[in-house]
Amino acid sequence: MIEAGPAPGGQLHHVHFHPRELPGLPAGDGPAIAATFAHQLRDSGVPVRCDTAAASLGSADPRGRPWVESSAGERFEADAVLVATGVRRRCLEVPGERELEDRGVSYSATRDLRSLAGRDVVVVGGGDGAFENALILAGAGCRVLLALLEEPRARREFRDRVARERSIEVVEGVRVNAFLGADRLEAVELEGPDGPFVRKASGAVIKVGVIPNTEWCRAVLDHDGEGFIRVDPRHRASRPAVWAAGDVTRPPLLGITVAFGAAALAVADVRATLRGE
Ligand SMILES: Cc1cc2nc3c(=O)[nH]c(=O)nc-3n(C[C@H](O)[C@H](O)[C@H](O)COP(=O)(O)OP(=O)(O)OC[C@H]3O[C@@H](n4cnc5c(N)ncnc54)[C@H](O)[C@@H]3O)c2cc1C
User: Considering the entire predicted model, what is its pTM?
Assistant: First the structure.
């Protein structure tokens, strides 16, 4: 197994609570569960190479054994490759976002609830994540402006709860131009149909979706318009001897149990294929 980061566990390292919808695992937050999995990997004898990022995927000929080449130029040839490189958060890429991260600008209300509680906060995004974060902040005494570029995509339950929540104001058709502040976030510059306007805020939470980590294999595998790998029901990708599983395939629900289940299906098919069944 090759892993780009310093330790296996992926997004679990960003789950600062006991993950929801996760039956059968001992209590603990994401990093604790990641550590349990890392022990299991070690105990099962799977060699794990951390700090080793896959940079390209190929094979000597289109039907030949695949290889993965790391960013350091090391080539790993194999009978089968399972792509499980997951997703990363999407950023707005506007002025002030990077500079004021963790100084008012956040990507998770849960993680930063203590510092955001009671403040004026702008939440950016229109999906489940944005609506859920707005509700969490309202519950912590914040006055929330929920800024959506387009119509809401959040599930009905969240939309209804937001509509009932007096401390959440929803504005549609607005984009963020910049996060403003010298040392800490002081305001957010937004732009709507009537032009730019500035909203004072000492907190902002950005929830604008995820990007699949597939830049390294997109050139050789079929993918959708956003780069998520297309697979068949057995999790085979478009190239022989290559499978993909987990968030990187855009399952209908991005979640740990879904990734487990998909990986189990993929591995079962890898095994059957290698045995010639
Ligand atoms: C804040 C937060 C809260 C969440 N809460 C929950 C929850 O409560 N319940 C739940 O079920 N799910 C939750 N999730 C989602 C869950 O964590 C993911 O669905 C799950 O981790 C997906 O697993 P994965 O293996 O597909 O991908 P990931 O966890 O994204 O793992 C992919 C791995 O691939 C590595 N990688 C990426 N690119 C390369 C490369 N080029 N070469 C080598 N390695 C690479 C990454 O470093 C990473 O370790 C949450 C996610 C976040 C961010």
Answer: 0.89
